[in-house]
Amino acid sequence: MLPHEQAALATGRRRRRFALAAGVGTAAAVACGLWLVARPTPTRLLEQGLLAARTDRNAAERLFRRALADADGQYPDAQMALCSLLARRESWDEALALFDTVDQQACRADLLLDFGQRSYRAGRRAPALEALNEVRRRHTPESVQALELLIFDYAEWERHQDLIDATRELARLQPDDPARWSELIDLLKSMNRNSECLTAIQEALRQDLPDDFQRDLRHQLVDRLIVSGDVAGAKREIAQLELDEGDSLRLSGDKLDLYRLEGDLEKALEMVTAIFPEIQDRPDAYYVRGTIYLDLGRFAEAAGDLKRAVTGLPFHNEAHFKLAQAYRALALTKEAERHRKLAARISEKRKRIGELLNQIVDDPQNRQICNDLAALHRELEEFELARRWEHRAARQSAAAGLP
Amino acid sequence: MGFRRGWPWIVLFLGAALAGCGRSSVKPATPAKPVLQPSSDATNPAGSSSAPAGESEATASAEANRPDDWFEDATLESGIRFAYRNGREAGRFYILESLGGGAAMIDYDLDGVLDLFFTGGGTISTGGPVSIAGLPSALYRNEGQRQFGDVTNLCGFEAPPDFSHGCAVTDYDADGFPDLFVCCYGRSRLYRNLGDGSFAEAGDEARLPALGWHTGAAFADLDRDGLPDLFVSRYTDWSPEADQVCIDQHGVQDVCGPGSYPGTTCQFFHNAGDGAFDDWSQRVGLAGNIRGLGVVAADFNADGWVDFYVASDESPKHLYLGGPELRFTEDAVAAGVAVSENGRAEGSMGVDVGDYNGDGLLDILVTNFENEDNALYRNLGDGLFMHSTIASGLGGVSRMRVGWGTAMTDFDGDGWLDLFVLNGNPLYHTGLSPFKQAPQLFRNRQGKRFEEVSPQGGVFFRQAHAGRGLAVGDLDNDGAPDIVTVQVNDPVRILYNRLAPKNFVRVQLAARHGEREATGARLTIEYDRRRLVRFVVQGAGYLSRFDPRLIFPVDESASTAEVAVDWPGRATETFRGLAVRQTHLLIEGRGDTQHVAP
After folding, report:
1. Distances A387 to A191, A375, A379 between C-alpha atoms, Å
2. Is the pTM of this model over 0.90?
3. Does ipTM surpass 0.95 in this model?
4. Mean pLDDT of A45-56
């Protein structure tokens, strides 16, 4: 081959190589550009990871880690998602270490909630409460679930003030839900927080709640006003209720309570006599009428009614006590002493329950207290409460690895 | 009560005229005495303000008396400048701060008008090791015209006792002059009236080892030897070393309730007659656990033997029945005066007794803590009582208050016993009801029910107070019982009753065959076609001593009256021709009267 031919050939090769290289380079650049344009963002990686987590935890973990890496390690949502994934794998050390680094305030509520729920179920109470309380502060729909779990926990751990605060918060978060207000009102009533209970009822009455519930609340308001000794307030409410619902059995009950509080015992007796046919199948009806007879000094009639009351309500210490008072006035000393002792014994059990409930606040994992509470409730034939405490004792036994 | 809907859920799970003391010799109090402090309230601890004493009084009289007020607040004009101090300024929240002090109406100079004695309370050190010190008591001599002179130092009370609460009066040495007993945290003190217008502390010769936390006391003759014995109620077994810290759910510290400390037993001291007392606590069978406050000595079961009824805080009240065997029988439960209408122990403070319903039997009124009604126990006879708060119209009316000093007294002169209750919360910040509360006045409607008339009570009733001790008696001898109240860290108040009866007779007993005051005696007079019965009792109200004289209304047209006296455990004697609007000393066995001034 001639030298000029060889040179031309070389030139051609160089051109082809260059063209090839240029093509490859261009293709690579285009590919790179396309990849850069189409590459999943950390957000997308997180979403992909959350989807994948349902079926392929390994893929999900890769995606979460990629998302985190792509965000230079500063992606709270990805961290939280990863926490939950690690929790599902029961890799708790790693999950909790990571959770400690998460900026919770910057984290999605649903991810925090999920981690909180998983942690709680796994008995990791501290991080669970931390996450749940963060969700609670958001006042988002997730806050409802967080509060529900927190309420369960506070009840379980006898954290009474926390329980009240959370229940009140939940009611305010769902102001149109009657059940939420009922829970709060009943809780406050059971804890003898009468003034707070009154406030809660009044707050509930300002909400847009169903008419039936509103009316029930107004009866409860009357009840609480009577318990507070607020005759004027109770009278006002009763008058208003009378306008709205006429003569109902419940309103008659309210009036009866008011008449007795005022010391207008004749009217109270008149009222209970009028409604007695409707309530005579209830032992508490006899307690109510017996109490009025006792107030009136009609001891024989009081004894008769109160005897029927204790037959139907054998663990009603107040009924036993009043029956003892009636018998005492009738000079039936032996019977009086018997019922006084019965009343004292029941009161003693209730007092003991109160003491144990106070103790369990300080020692919530104490199985013995749970068992003692269960036993006391069983003795008082409060079987549902007994079962609850037995169940709690069993759970604590299981948690402690005991048979 | 009532027919309520049942609710399940979480609820289920939580379930109180002598040379040395002449009018011209009245001197001001020494600086060591408790001084008037500005009004304090729940958010302004006593002592934290530097406002002068007069400010508090100005506040007290800021509102004018109204023409139809039952009582006229005459504190400013009275010359009495005194306030019980409880040591709150130390900020230690000791339960010791809760109880307050008492007052005694005592005619110490036998001039025929009631003088006033007040316990001083004490101080608690602020920092470093705890130091609890008493403040001096105070004695004010009634100079007439509603004026009182401070004779504290002249009469020998300049030295403070231990931290003091209640007081009691009797003539323990039978020298004819009334003596004083002051209940203290530490060692209680007995002061002998020397008859020259001064008192001297009965020291070791009295053999009175009254130690512990004494609150109230009453003198009465248990063994019928003619000498008054001493019953002392004790509160709890608290000490600074055993103090608990109580913080509420909002992190606010306050005084702990009595339930935080173990109860204790009362004490009984027999008057040996040689000026000394012997501790008979065990001998008379005082046992059991009690957090004793107000105590009344009377004949509760009408058997002629003196009994003692003790209000107890957060535990059942006790009724110690006396008898010939000189051993108490604690009978409160069987008598029906131990607990509430529902059988629950209450936070009981003050107590007074009297026949409120005109059946001639002695009934009992006990003041209680918030969320509890005050308890009125109607006497059914035969030593049985029935809780009658609801039946008497007192249900709910005091539920949101904490009652202390109380009096069952005929304030309006109609022959029916009315009620007065002094209120105030021992908790500074954390109670359901405020630290300072308005007192209450209830008019007795023909023995059937009580009606609250507090708004017509007067200026004092329209204000809130940290009320505690209370004494009732006729300070100006007009026939109408007046009121002296003791507040915590605020000036004592003198309330003159404006509803003087149109006609009356005032009597005081002088027994010759038993204790001179005749505790347990029952007096009867006919008035308005009915029989009024009054009883001679000791220690009523709250940590205080009332006027020992009894006032009966008399029909307007009558110029004389007739009083029948059932001497305790002895005969009934009738005293006739008692001139109206006079005070008569009814001396046992004479069937006659001895006229005394005025």
Report:
1. 21, 9, 12
2. no
3. no
4. 91
Residue A324 and residue A330: Cα distance in Å, rounded? 10
Among B255, B334, B328, which residue's Cα sits nearest to residue B297? B328
The pLDDT confidence band at residue B591, using thresholds 50, 70 and 90, is confident
A55 to each of A48, A50, A52, B188, B557, how far by Cα in Å?
A: 11, 10, 5, 82, 106
**Shortest distance, CA B398 to any CA of chain A (angstroms):** 8
Of B248, B76, B66, B222, the closest CA to residue B148 belongs to B76
Work out the number of other CB atoms within 10 angstroms of the CB of residue A298: 18
Burial, A397: exposed, middle or buried (Cβ in 10 Å; 0-12, 13-18, 19+)? middle
Instruction: Tell me the pLDDT band of B44, cut-offs 50, 70 and 90.
Output: very low
Judge whether B469 and B100 are in contact, CB under 8 Å.
yes
Is residue B502 within 8 Å of B414, Cβ to Cβ? no
* Interchain pair A279, B393: CB under 8 A: no
- In this structure, the dihedral spanned by the alpha carbons of residues A216, A217, A222 and A226, taken in order and rounded to 10 degrees, is 110
Q: Is A113:A148 a contact under the CB 8 Å cutoff?
A: no
Phi, psi (deg, nearest 5) at residue A192: 55, 30
pLDDT per position as a tens digit, B537-575: 999 899 999 999 999 999 999 999 999 999 998 889 999
The Cα–Cα gap between A92 and A110 comes to 20
Is some CB atom of chain B closer than 8 A to the CB atom of A230? Answer: yes
Per the CB < 8 Å rule, is A183 touching B398? no
Contacts of A276 (CB under 8 A, 6+ apart): A285, A289
The pairing of beta strand B211-220 with beta strand B229-234: antiparallel
Q: Is A344 within 8 Å of B396 when comparing Cβ atoms?
A: no
For B410-443, the pLDDT digits (tens) are 999 999 999 999 999 999 999 989 999 999 999 9
Contacts of A388 in chain B (CB under 8 A): 12-13
pLDDT tens digits, one per residue of A158-214: 888 899 999 999 999 999 999 999 999 999 999 888 889 999 999 999 999 999 999
Query: Is any Cβ of chain B less than 8 angstroms from the Cβ of A196?
Result: no
Return phi, psi of residue B91, to 5°. 70, 25
Report CB contact under 8 Å: B392, A257: no
CB-based contact A216 B392, cutoff 8 Å: no
Cβ contacts of A309 within 8 Å, gap of 6 or more: A283, A284, A286, A287, A290, A316, A319, A323
Question: In 3D, which of B292, B360, B365, B383 has the Cα closest to residue B522?
Answer: B360
Distance CA A53, CA B169 (A): 86
Q: Which residues of B touch A347 (CB under 8 A)?
A: 343-344
CA distance B2 to A259: 11
Of B1, B7, B399, the CB nearest to A186: B7
CB-based contact B582:B507 (threshold 8 Å): no
Write out residues 310-349 of A within 8 Å (CB-CB) of B. 317-318, 320-322, 325, 328-329, 340, 343-344, 347
What phi, psi does B513 have (nearest 5°)? -110, 15
The whole-chain average pLDDT of chain A stands at: 91
**Is pLDDT at A235 greater than 80 in this prediction?**
yes
What is the helix (H) or strand (E) element at residue B124, kind and residue range? Answer: strand B122-124
Query: How far does Cα B65 stand from its chain's mean position?
Result: 26
Q: Give the whole-angstrom CA distance, residue B325 versus residue B591.
A: 31
Residue of chain A with shortest Cα separation from B450: A263
3-class secondary structure per residue, A209-259: CCHHHHHHHHHHHHHHHHHCCCHHHHHHHHHHHHHHHCCCHHHHHHHHHHH
Q: What is the pLDDT of residue A403?
A: 56
Shortest CA gap B340–chain A (Å): 10
Which residue type sits at A366?
A: N
Q: Write down the mean pLDDT value for chain B.
A: 89
Cβ distance of B396 and A163 shorter than 8 Å: no
